[in-house]
Write a structure and sequence with these properties.
Rossmann fold; 160 residues; alpha/beta; 3-stranded parallel sheet; 5 helices; disordered C terminus; 6 strands
Length: 160
């Protein structure tokens, strides 16, 4: 068995070039998106490991938002453009179409973009904000939460 930490940001080699022995990784950002496994539910093959960022769950997060706020029609999606964010956006778009929710993509690259993003979300009539996983947004989670609570008018249970 080979254990590797180097798989973190790599794409999988073609199946014929994968080793025949069991392969375990400590952390890989997007095992499905990078081609290491077929799906999280049924990875198949001889590869196993842990993942902290799974674009595959982004659609489910939107479903949960819609379940919490049934009249939700506009959602602002905050993210920092890159490979992982692009995969998350690809995963959330079919869910948005099925739920009849309009997405507003807001790219947040630096601290100055957070306030602008929430201003744009409010102008876009966002009823909720979906914050995609990114190291930058994770490092600014308190600031993001503060802007979310002060910038958006949240729907109360009385108004549902």
């Amino acid at each position: 068995m080979l254990s590797s930490q180097r798989l973190r940001h790599q794409r999988a080699p073609p199946k014929k070039r994968l080793p025949r022995f069991p392969l375990s990784w400590r952390l890989i950002l997007t095992p499905v998106g990078n081609g290491f496994v077929a799906s999280l539910a049924r990875p198949g093959g001889n590869i196993t490991g842990l993942s902290t960022l799974s674009p595959e769950i982004t659609g489910k997060q939107l479903e949960l938002l819609k379940e919490i706020i049934p009249k939700l029609s506009h959602v602002a999606v905050l993210g920092t453009r890159g490979l992982v964010t692009d995969q998350m956006l690809r995963e959330v778009k079919p869910a948005a179409a099925a739920l009849k929710v309009e997405l507003q993509q807001l790219d947040v690259r630096g601290p100055q973009d957070i306030e602008t993003a929430f201003r744009d979300a409010r102008k876009g009539r966002a009823g909720a904000v979906l914050v995609l996983a990114s190291p930058f947004l994770e490092s600014r989670r308190r600031e993001v939460a503060d802007f979310a609570t002060s910038s958006l008018r949240f729907t109360t249970a009385k108004n549902l």
